[in-house]
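Protein modeling request. Please complete all fields; requests missing the sequence field cannot be processed.
Requester role: graduate student
Desired output: 3D structure, token encoding
Chains: 1
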Amino acid sequence: MSEFITQGIFRPQVQKSLEKAYSLAVSKPNLSFSQCMGNSFRQTVANLFSHQKMNKDVMLSGHIQNTKERAKTSEGDYVIAAQDTVTTTQDIKKCPG
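Delivered output (97 residues):
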């Protein structure tokens, strides 16, 4: 299960929608977001992610916490952690080329 949806920091209705969105995305990786979610549920999920309280810190908090826990329990002296977060912009004026 996704570290994002297991955080439990959202209202139960929101948590359920996030779980459904995650399941749909994982089960249909070759489809676009719109095709995967379906039109009305796509709008629901887009609204959740565009909410003022939803930001990268909220989205990544479960992942960061679980990574810290895995690092604490690792057997080695060192932990290599690759960055897996992508920064994007939808502002056409900022896009190169």
